[in-house]
Specification:
316 residues; mainly alpha; three-stranded mixed sheet; 11 helices; 75% helix; 2% strand; globular
Length: 316
Amino acid sequence: MDATNESSEGAPFILLGLTTSPEQRRPLFGLFLVLYVAGILGNGLIVAAIRASPALRAPMYFLLAHLSFADLCFTSVTVPKMLTNLLAHDRSISVAGCLTQMYFFFALGVTDSCLLAAMAYDRYVAIRHPLHYATRMSRAVCKALVGTAWLVSHVHSLLHILLMARLSFCASHHVPHFFCDHQPLLRLSCSDTRHIQLLIFTEGAAVVVTPFLLILASYGAIAAAVLRLPSASGRLRAVSTCGSHLAVVSLFYGTVIAVYFQPTSRYEAERGRVATVMYTVVTPMLNPVIYSLRNRDVQGALRALFTGRRISAGDS
């Protein structure tokens, strides 16, 4: 390798961000700061309320607390750097920093995917097998589901980062994105990236597409049970809840699949940035609203959290 390539190999990446227009940076900073703070507050309050309230000890709340914590960390991996770069002149990130950001981004994203599937399974068991719910969703089962989600996600991320670390970047180091993501970095590499793309379409599909299909199957079974409810108001309420859940899930998985499950040669930076915003910023902000803030028990726990009043497991 010649001196020019060696110099390029050690050079930091330059994150071009959401826009190259100086006039758009401050409005975008304000918008994403509001979205980020809303997501952090929403998910943080859910975690605090579930941990503080004895009334929220059901399996669904245990899973929800982990989802909210994962969402809180997930947005914090990319958004603070993005906000800084919208105002800063120096938008560089070291190679080590880039790989570290990518590692936690993929690990937390896959954790989200697995936890969403676990929550869908929890609702399926509660509605289709209520008499066996306590057994099928015992504390040990919930811990096993959560532990598996975190373990699988970190193994998945480690595999990808070990392969990404072996790539050579001897061309431009200007990344047309607001964080270090797979597709734009693969476009910059002068190495053979076929093995990484194969991993995305095989192992990556297993940790993204499989949970999505499980969620669709679970909600399909739930919908069949809901349609047999004798009360029209009960059916309407259940359909509304399931519909909002599926809307957010579809937004999350739809944009993830659109970005990653395509050949690198077909990747378009502008469309990729827009889709990425949906699952890195928008859905983590919506999850607390969709899954918990409309729930009476969670609302009661939040009021108790703010007023300092203790609520017992028998309160509703």
